[in-house]
Amino acid sequence: MRRRSLSSSTSRRSPRAREGRIVSAPYPARVTSIERAQAVLAGGCDSPVRSGWGVNHPMFVQRSAAGAYAYDETGRRYIDYVMAYGPLLFGHTHPALVTGLDEVAKHGFVWGTTHPEEMRLAERIRAHLPSMERMRFVSTGTEAVMSAIRVARAFTRRSLILKFAGNYHGHFDLALLNAGASAHTSDASASGIPEGVMHDVVVARYNDLESVDALLRGREHEIAAIIVEPIVGNMGYVTPVPDFLEGLRERTRRYGALLIFDEVITWLRFGPRGAQDRVGITPDMTTIGKIMGGGAPIAAFGGREEVMAVLAPLGGTFTGGTHGGNPFCVGMAHRVLDLIEAHPEYYDEMRARAERLADGIRAIFRTRDLPYAVVQHESIVDFKFRAGPPNRNYDDALAADKKKYAAYYAAMLQRGILLPPSQNEVMFVSTAHTDADIDATLAAIEASIGDR
Ligand SMILES: Cc1ncc(COP(=O)(O)O)c(C=O)c1O
């Protein structure tokens, strides 16, 4: 069979292509980016929240980003409070993270071997989070939590996991049951999550030890682990009530189970010692991710030495990953820790901006007699369209008025403010947000709340 030569196929191309220029696919002008996305990406996106389905609004198509700002396709600037759903503690393009990357990449991106910088990173993390006596690097928070759960099951030789409604731990099977954030799980036949998975997981109410006890009654000696976001960022911002986490710590000890803290959002957001230091409770295992890579995909799981010893080659439990601990992402994580360790004042600055934002929103609500509680902790700011105290659990989160949030989201976008397209998410303030950004945001809120 004769093969067509490259040159003969070239001769059929347009003159521009023959000159060696890249010719993009000839989309007719009337095809919008959203239609184009839907024609090639499943549902038009890689993660459903991005589609705008939570606010019944067309998807935000982003062309670029810098500092505190996201830019849409027309080049219009928006003050960005999504911040990639948490990783961007320093905004989009902090010079310490985006310059000199050839230095980070000069020995390659991935090796498939263990290396000293990976050891040094683990030592640095353990210095901040001593509960992670041994750890492993992976690429995403989902992998970190999935691996931690397998380790906990292997260590305890039990299967049952207790999790909380409205916490989000990634998109592996059991994590999605009644999960917060933008997760949505249909019944087993439609979701792809086998019925069998439900036998080994129970879902309790956050901040409610009675619901924990009710679910564990009679199954106390089946429980492998309780996994919890110690401070939650996935059903709005929710803090633990006094004695809740203490109660989980006490019960896991009493039943011979492990306590896993999912600090994928909270580690580095609340400082290098994480939420576990703030709440004064030491978990058996911890998962971290998001901020630690400065935007590059790196996460980790770890815990007590004897627990992590179940992992092969010491034990019989397997986790692995082609990209786990790769030198590029490890190099980025070192840069993040370098920045944080060199600039403790960053936290004060972010807190001051977040307080300015939260106080401003409270003042607007007071003037307009709006009954919404505004919460702020470090660089997280949140309020929901629901009267009464801040969210304490997922029932509260689900009671918020979705239509009002959707209208508010659209009105804010029109005024150049990019909010998370779901009321389960929170606003993240970064080191890049300025007082002027906060004041512009407050002006937009004042006008948009009036649009209701
Ligand atoms: C607390 C928490 N755990 C785990 C995950 C999953 O992380 P990833 O999206 O990197 O898989 C997330 C993501 O939002 C999270 O918020």
Short structural description:
The chain is of the alpha/beta class. It contains 17 helices and 14 strands.
Q: Pick out the low-confidence regions.
A: 1-20
Beta-strand fraction estimate: 5-15%
The separation of the N and C termini measures 69 Å
CATH architecture of the largest domain: 3-Layer(aba) Sandwich
Number of strand elements: 14
Q: Please tell me the total number of domains.
A: 2
CATH topology name of the largest domain: Aspartate Aminotransferase, domain 2
Total helical elements? 17
How would you classify the helix and strand content by structural class? alpha/beta
- Rounded to an integer in angstroms, the radius of gyration calculated over CA atoms is 24 Å
Shape: globular
Output the CATH class name of the largest domain: Alpha Beta
Instruction: Indicate the percent of residues in helices.
Output: 25-40%
* List of distinct ligands in this structure: pyridoxal-5'-phosphate
Largest sheet: 7 strands, mixed
Overall mean pLDDT: 93
CATH homologous superfamily designation of the largest domain: Type I PLP-dependent aspartate aminotransferase-like (Major domain)
Arrangement of strands in the largest sheet: 4-10-9-8-7-5-6
